[in-house]
Amino acid sequence: MSLKRLAIANLLGAATALLMASSAMAAGETLTISGFGGNLQKDLRATLWQPAADAAGVTLSEETQDGLASVRVQVQSGSPTWDIVHLGADECAVGGKEGLFEPLDYKVIKTDGFDKKAYGDHWIATNTYSVVLAWRTDVYKDKHPTSWKDFWDVKAFPGRRALSTYPQEMMEIALLGAGVSKDKLYPLDTKLSLEKLKEIKPDISVWWSSGAQSAQLLKDKEVDMMAIWGSRVASVIKDGAPVEFTYDNGILGYGCLAILKGSTHVAAAQKFIAGVVSPEIQARIPEMMPYYGPTNSLAFKVGKFSPEVLAKSNMSPENVAKQTFIDANWWRDNNELVREDYSLLISN
Amino acid sequence: MTTVAADLLPPNAGVLNAGLLGGDERRQRLAMFGLSVPALVLVALVLLVPFSWLAWLSFFDASGALSGENYARLLRPAYVNSFLSTLQVSAAVTAICILLGYPVAYLLSQLPQRVAQVLLVFIILPFWTSVLVRTYAWLVLLQREGVINTWLKQLGLISESLPLVNNLTGTIIGMVHVMLPFLILPLYSSMRAIDPVYLRAAANCGASPAQSFRQVFLPLSAPGLGAGAALTFVLCLGFYLTPALLGGGRVAMWSTQIADAVSKFANWGAASALSVALLVVTGIILWAMKWAVRRLGSSLGEG
User: Fold this and answer.
1) Domain A29-128+254-310, CATH
2) Where are the domains of chain A?
3) How far apart are CA A185 and CA A171, in angstroms?
4) Is B260 in Cβ contact with A343 (below 8 Å)?
5) If one looks up domain A129-252+326-347 in CATH, what number appears?
6) Which one of B76, B144, B160 would you mutate to disrupt binding with A, by most A Cβ within 10 Å of its Cβ?
7) Do A340 and B266 touch (CB under 8 A)?
8) What is the pLDDT along chain B (303 residues), one digit of tens a residue?
9) 20 to 30 Å CA-CA from A93: which of A118, A209, B208, B227?
10) Chain A, nearest residue to B62 by Cα
11) Chain B residues in contact with A339 (beta carbon < 8 A)
12) pTM of the entire structure?
């Protein structure tokens, strides 16, 4: 009887000690990060966020955001429950302009190896994605399209096409199709771009609005060529569909991190972000998230990659040279106007 | 109940215990009101309060200043066109639903109750399947390399695939499928309620089957048809999922604009103004339809 009681007391003691230990660890600081959810967030956590949190000595808790509107609600409440948010670069830029974010401390966060367009006072890009030209190889057997100019050339390359319902990247693509050189894209010539889109509109069978939809269109041969995210086309090819794509003339967009105004863990968040963009952690992207890329080009100096990995990564020195970066600040200032013209063009 | 009882009593009896009856009636009314309080509170909480807040939001621009900007925006061509195409799509879907649904409801109402109940299961069955699943099923059926186009090509009826989806055609097919039960069910129940004696009486008076249908059955089923059509039309006005998936981005429904304003542009003021406009127009249409159905019912009854 007494032996049994002793055993129970021991067990309780051990449990208490364990509990205390774990609460002491959590006491470090807990950062709440809110992202797009789904597979992307899972991959980002495994690749970037968890190692950065470990390095900064913080515990990470995850939420999902529903666009800039949800961030605005958080900040307006006065005491946001999120500390850090992962958004698209233009949303970061708009949020920065609206004063939703704390300024980033660039004494803590190092930007060596960053493109100038890839960070702002209040945000920094942490991963890139590419919008690329992809086509069905069973439709274009002998001669396949190689550039956005070919996408616009319906005589040489007849077939059904698809673009996105989001004007972003599509406006750039239209200008590339018009023959504007990729280093002279910004500020976008919206008039010319919309004219080119109007010209191709009769041959656009579908304006896609989600990544899953875009992949399905190509996989089921609903369209013959399209503008699509690199990560999505990669999964279509992996599924065995006769599809190819090129990084030539691709548009590079960013995902970015920003700290919510009113967060009570600003210093820890700065340290965490510094970790996320460090070359060492960025160098994990090419292998763990193929078809996405590091925003810090030093990642390719730090990491050693096989030629296959380099060929897939949208940010490998060879591939990045073929593409052009999106200008988040231009979109920040012009988004709403362009969007209305664009949706008017699609639906009429 | 009390009024009926009062009618049955001799005329002077009502005067004798009028005070008693009146008190009874008041108590009963109070009890009825008391019973409906929870429902009223629920409606106020989940409907009126959020809607008032929404309407309030619509008067502020993105920076938080009071302005009519969100409503002025609605006059831009992109929104006007989207509004018109929403009305067109809704009207087309409602019309097709009536053409397809009326004969079905008529057939069901003329069958023996037991048979009709079995057949009704087929109409209600889609209700138990998610709209998303049904919409994707249409995508599989209608797309260029889909089941229908493949069959038609194998049968040699067509050489090139028909554009059945990612356009207006696909949107309307998908929406009709989802909406049909909403038309058939109220219509069926109103047709069931029509006493067959009326039709026999019409036949006895020398009316041909077509005449008795047109002059007796149709006017009597008009309220049910009106209710079904109004329900279908109004649900179409706010329909988001099916047009978004089957329209290929080329069918700009009003609901898409609301979703865009919130999710793409984080502009709650604009989204609120769009929603308020939709609600007001829906209210006007419902009222007009009610009026039209009443007119239709009485004019057909007279003619």
Assistant:
1) 3.40.190.10
2) 29-128+254-310, 129-252+326-347
3) 10
4) yes
5) 3.40.190.10
6) B144
7) no
8) 444 444 555 555 556 677 788 888 888 888 888 888 999 999 889 988 988 988 888 888 766 778 888 888 888 877 888 899 899 999 999 999 999 999 999 999 999 989 999 999 988 888 888 888 999 899 989 988 889 999 999 998 888 888 888 889 999 999 999 999 999 999 999 999 998 899 899 999 998 989 999 989 998 998 899 889 999 999 999 999 899 889 888 888 899 888 888 776 667 788 899 999 999 988 998 888 888 877 766 766 554
9) A209
10) A98
11) 260, 264-265
12) 0.79
